[in-house]
Amino acid sequence: MKQLKTNDHIRNIAIIAHVDHGKTTLVDAMFHFSGVFREGQEVQSRIMDRMELERERGITIAAKNCSVSWQGVKINIIDTPGHADFGGEVERALSMADGAILLVDAAEGPLPQTRFVLKKTLEAGLKIIVVINKIDRKDARPLEVLNEIFDLFIDLGADDNQVDFLCLYAVGREGIVMDSPDGEAKDLKLLFDTILAEVPAPVYDPGEPFQMLVSDLDYSDYLGRLAIGKIFHGHAYSNDTLVCIDERGEHQRLKVTRLQGYEGVSLRDIDHAGPGDIVVLSGIDDVMIGDTICTEENSKALKRITVDEPTVSMRITANNSPLAGTEGTWVQSNRIYERLRKETLRNVSIRLEVPPENDCFILKGRGELQLAIIIETMRREGFELCVGRPEVISVIRGGELLEPIEHLYIDCDEEYLGVVTQKLSIRKGRMINFANHAAGRVRIEFNVPSRALIGYRDEFLTDTKGSGIMSSYLLGFEPYRGEFPTRFTGSIVADRRGVAVPYALYNLEPRGRLFITPGEQVYEGMIIGEHSKENDIDVNPCKMKKLTNMRAAGRDDNILLSPVTPLTLEKALQFIREDEMVEVTPKSIRLRKTELSAGRRHDRSIARKKAAG
Predict the structure, then answer these.
(1) 363 in helix, strand or coil?
(2) Distances in Å between the alpha carbon of 525 and those of 58, 384, 494, 570?
(3) Beta-strand (E) ranges in 92-181?
(4) How far apart are CA 85 and CA 472, in angstroms?
(5) Which residue has the higher pLDDT, 583 or 4?
(6) Residue 6 in contact with residue 201, Cβ under 8 Å?
(7) DSSP calls for 470-519
(8) 589-593 and 580-584 as β-strands: parallel, antiparallel, unpaired?
(9) Which among 201, 234, 468, 509 is placed 20 to 30 Å from 481, CA to CA?
(10) What residues contact 115, with CB distance under 8 A and at least 6 apart?
(11) pTM
(12) Rounded to an integer, what distance in angstroms lies between the CA atom of residue 342 and that of residue 38?
């Protein structure tokens, strides 16, 4: 019988929560309390949100590792994203953890992403510590939220040990954790003591050779490809000769040129690492997430990381508009393909396909936000490309067409209940729960097709005057619910190339909402506005006022145009129809028709009408 041992000098813990429930802020407080930063040292807030997009949006996009020390024990912390679109990051992070802190807002309670991340944690069999955060809010209801969390555990099929969780109460922003809502604690000592007492130390077999599961990848200009993961058995030393076992079971020899471990938020070189530790190995050229790194003499592969299948796809092509190549650095198809392929190596939930016609790429992911983040990142790297409307991925089982269905939570003021219900009913949504907390706000739950939510978020914020909260998680697949209109307006399309002038735009304003300002370059097929009616119209935004040699009795009208809200990538993707695309460059985001020629679009429209009878 194997004699298993534990490494009591290490704890590995993931912090999981819904978006904006305070994960990264709590990690900041843990850094300060544990002494990672010296007293008086100036440190920016949300230090774990290192990506530019993360700091702009205030959300965590990629899971990141760090560590703190408490009473001689190294605590490896994995900060995870809270949005379901980045679920692959959560699944990848949980493969390195032995326990998890579930953070829940004391006012909002468990929300869709809380359910998603908790489900993955329970499936991984990790020890869970529940922390009810933000108990200093005026609308905090910690005891009710605790009951909701308990109900969620039961609903997700937690066993007796998992249901018997320990609950703490926190004000993460102030760095305070207590054992009751009215506790007297003033620091995080209770949290650290609880982690050491409740989270199990890593278990390993001293008779097994070195084994490490690759859970993340990075790249260094000096060291090349970096493999990040947890050591399950054995010890690692710098300059070791090891092998990497890939998905096909093939072995590739490698030499560890550098071994690094986490110390605070940074990496430091180490000579040796033991079981349970999370390390970074360099010296591996061809490694994938899920591969096993082990000794050559006793090569055994660990169970690979598995993630949920993609639910949304997007068509990507090289930019072929008349303005192609004028603003970007990388415009060729092969450059775009290579960049997307690299993304699939680092992101386990992304898939890339090249259709038989070979004129585009199909990028598949968990949601439109995840795909939009990838496109926005490429845009900032200097790429030019065109992207189509996000489409849900349907499946056929037993000869029946099935589509992904989402469980949608809506929290809004009571006065907007009617318009929200009406819009979602049109989109084949079904109300399954309704709660009125008698505070002027209502919480509604819908069962709705995933394709109904593409393009609805902006409309929802407009309908609720910016006060509504909307979140969802994938429920599963159900029979196709039929067609519904995605947009009740048409597009205003430019019919020639030129420069937009104030006179022409002033006369186009009564037709709808414009997206461009005077002086912008336009071309045939470019969408310059939203038509107030359902049909598309071709217009001339370059038309100058006709001048004569006749003197006017008065003076010309002073042209004042309505202000134009700049398009963001998310808004553009939500606006376009199936026959439209978004042209993405480092400097601009433009909308366009897939077929630029007005004549060919007209001929195709006539052909479709004849085919329809």
Answers:
(1) strand
(2) 36, 18, 6, 21
(3) 99-105, 127-133, 166-171, 176-178
(4) 10
(5) 583
(6) yes
(7) EEEEEEEEEE------S-S-EEEEE-S-EE--HHHHHHHGGGEEE---TT
(8) antiparallel
(9) 468
(10) 152, 156, 473
(11) 0.79
(12) 38
